Amino acid sequence: MGLQILPYLDDWLLCSHTQEQAMMEIGQLLSDITHLGLAVNFSKSKLTPIQSVEFIGIILNSRLMKASPSEQRVNSILLLLPRFRGRTRLLFRYFLRLMGLRAAAAAVIPLGLLGPFQRWVNSFHLNPNVHMKKLIKKLLTWAFPRLASVRVMHITGVTNGLADFLSRHKPLSGEWSLNPEVVELIWQCFGSAEVDLFASAMSAQCPLWFSLAERSSPVWQDALAQDWPDLSL
């Protein structure tokens, strides 16, 4: 079996099931690294198996199965926050620094990206829709314990045709149909139909159907002008 390693650039975390297995795999890993011609920074490495370790700014505790930001990461955020209090102008690098720190901590902090930074940005009233902000926060609060992740995507109106079809294009007159599940329930109660008298290739529920104008109709066009077949209609 291979080694289970969590790599982040040149930082590697070796995961093992037992202390004995970890000791054996550490030796194997060091041997493989040497064979590849790579150098290990032993002063920054921890080669003794432990169940609570700091890795890329996150404390991972395999005994409690918990993850939390390191003390250094928390202090970095706390030292940066006072720059945003009572200020309307800041250097852009402070924004990038805070956003980076919060994004890195968001993986282990529930709703970590909601907080003082968002409230500070909102104080500029860049978006007047306060109700929408509250709705988004309510949605994220609901989604957190239920969903693995939530992603927001902007789809341009040109490519978002399905969502905007009713408001922009209007449906074709008479072009509608029942949900197939509803049709199935009706047929279970009253028997299945064999011919759809007023339909199209898009809306037909039966294998045989009359169309108002489509020549592809398997029966004929305009059911009101034709003799109906002796089948269930």
From TrEMBL:
Gene3D superfamilies: 3.30.70.270. Its EC number is 3.1.26.4. SUPFAM superfamilies: DNA/RNA polymerases. Residues 1-60 form the Reverse transcriptase domain. It comes from the Eukaryota. Belongs to the beta type-B retroviral polymerase family. HERV class-II K(HML-2) pol subfamily. This is ribonuclease H. The lineage of its organism: Eukaryota, Metazoa, Chordata, Craniata, Vertebrata.
